[in-house]
Amino acid sequence: MTEITQALIARVGVDLSKRVYQVHAVDRAGTRVLSKAMSPDRFFAWCASLLAGCTVAMEACGGAHHAARRLRLLGLDARLIACHLVTPYRMAGKSGKNDANDAAAICEAASRPHMRFVAVKSAEQQAHLVVHRLREGYKKERTACINQIRGLLTEFGLVFAQSPEKLRAVLPQVLEDASNELPGVVRLAVQRAHEHWIALDKELQWCDERIAAHVQNDGNAQKAATLVGIGPVTASALVASVGDFKQFDNAHQFGAWLGLTPSQHSSGGKANLGRITKRGDEYLRTLLIQGAKSAVFSAAKRSDPISRWLLALTARSGWQKATVALANKNARILWAMLTRGTAFDAHHVPQMPCARQAPAKAVVVPAM
What we know:
Elements: H1 3-8, E1 11-15, E2 21-26, E3 32-38, H2 40-47, E4 55-59, H3 64-73, E5 77-81, H4 83-86, H5 99-110, E6 117-118, H6 123-154, H7 164-176, H8 184-217, H9 219-224, H10 232-242, H11 251-257, E7 262-264, E8 273-276, H12 282-297, H13 305-317, H14 319-340
Parallel strand pairs: 1-4, 4-5
Antiparallel strand pairs: 1-2, 2-3, 5-6, 7-8
């Protein structure tokens, strides 16, 4: 491509994959200049010749944050767009999905003045999130291992309480008990499964140690962990996922990003609110709700204003709604703390905004 053509390019949409990047470039008038598939190495070499500040948009998918960081090092304006916001701009609709159409839709979506972009994560943020992803994988694998042991023992009439701790306590005795009908090969199989269970516990312990170290070394994570219903795991995940909390204009926007605000089906001036939207990161929302649930059930043991509010809300609306309400409140408090640099105060009373005074009307005195 000639230098003249390169200078015409004002915006680029890229559909990422493992081995092929589909590129769609347009000029300032929106006219297509280039539509071509490239290898990743060739794509980054091609981007090096673009003018500084050129917008390069991609969907927020696997490897997108890494690509965005590389493009920003080249002086380009790399932007990430959530996948569900790109779909409406595919001109061929659902039946015309391919790499070229997706790249064109990404390029078109990036041109919208009110488009919402995903903040590019740093390598350090992603490093902390790797530990969280590993921890979740180990948790699911451990649960599957425990259930598998239960299923195998049930086939031979050995049924135990659902608590993993109770199963762990009786399992060595079951394997050593010669009075049950467990064949030798089954005893060996269950023993190996038990060893795998122990190994998974060690991996989870390692992940918890890394998360605790992150909270200890990060001031924002320490502040987040002081909230009622937010522990070290939730604090670490929130800080690592969000990064700069000032990217949200207000606390309501942050709660909506987490999917903790009610959905709407309003029309004709009548507001109809439904369940929470459940948009955004499911992992963060799950951690916030799980922590809030624990705080709701233990609210009677505390006397701070939030706990008293939880008790009143639970009595009025039930513990499920109280749990979601506390998760949303924690998200808003966290945004206020980390954007204003303040510490958490359970007894804080917000200052009500002053009411706007209507302008004084001129008094007309009738002529005598």
